[in-house]
Amino acid sequence: MSSIRLSDSLRERIAGPGPILALTGAGVSAESGLATFRGPEGLWEGRDPMELATPEAFAQDPVDVWRFYAWRRRMALQAKPNPAHLALAAMEAARDDFLLVTQNVDGLHERAGSRRVLRLHGSLWWLRCVAEDAENEDLREDLGELPPRCECGAMLRPGVVWFGESLPHEAIETASRAAHEARLVLVAGTSSLVYPAAGLPGIASASGAYVVEINPERTPLSALADERLEGPAGEILPLLAEAAGVAS
Length: 248
Ligand code: BV8
Description:
This protein has 248 residues and is an alpha/beta fold. The protein has helices at residues 8-15, 49-52, 55-60, 62-78, 83-94, 108-111, 169-181, 200-206, 233-243; strands spanning 20-24, 98-102, 117-119, 122-129, 135-137, 156-160, 184-188, 210-214, 227-229. The chain is built from 9 helices and 9 strands.
């Protein structure tokens, strides 16, 4: 039995009229066994992901960066969606005014059944030709020799947004519009440090939305949130789905 208590106000809001916006980060995949970016286990071979997830790192040593991403693809493939992912997919299936916006690139939301996923930072499962800029889905467990190559002969890069790169215009525009229109925002599993994604709850709050933070730790968002549910997303999001009258 969970010790987490949802306020009456939140119970009313989650079952009431929307739109509802959910914003997720690496913490919702933590209970699937995937390392978060900034958690103690977030380092890769003692390296800081922040130094690997940049165009400069890729230009300097594409094989090194590809080893990092090939490792993350393998980890993500071995991982299974957890109750947090499943609860979000169930809430989306139950109402068409529910939008999931994620910073995650692991594909677990999609594997849990979420259909309308707005990916702000791209995906491990899409590769982009550095010459043609075309992106294709590639679900192979083993990419073979690194860096993988396009048929045109040029290198392929991970289809993710690196630090210092702009987010897909369409994605951030749609997410910002959804933030302006949302009545309820669920922010789960993010340290709220990376912009422009971290700015979305503030946009929603300024437009009158009720902002709920779901995280075992406090973050820069905590002071702005209307309600904090302190605990793991895999335990809390199913409670929210249940309060919304949705079995997950
Ligand atoms: C941009 C994809 C315009 C790759 C990622 C200087 C130069 C250039 C840019 C900047 C600069 N200074 C600031 C910036 C802007 C920069 C930024 O915000 N930097 C921060 C660090 C200060 N942003 C950008 O560069 C963005 N682009 O601004 O373009 C521009 C262009 C040029 C120059 C200037 C501006 C691009 C940002 C996207 C970067 N790509 N990922 C990849 O994945 O490899 S971001 C990366 O961090 C991941 O996507 C991740 O999702 C994201 C955020 O991290 P979180 O998801 O929050 O994960 P984290 O580990 O941090 O936290 C996990 C949380 O979960 C914790 O709070 C923990 O308590 C909690 N948790 C743990 N377990 C659980 C849990 N919660 C619930 N349940 C649990 N069980």
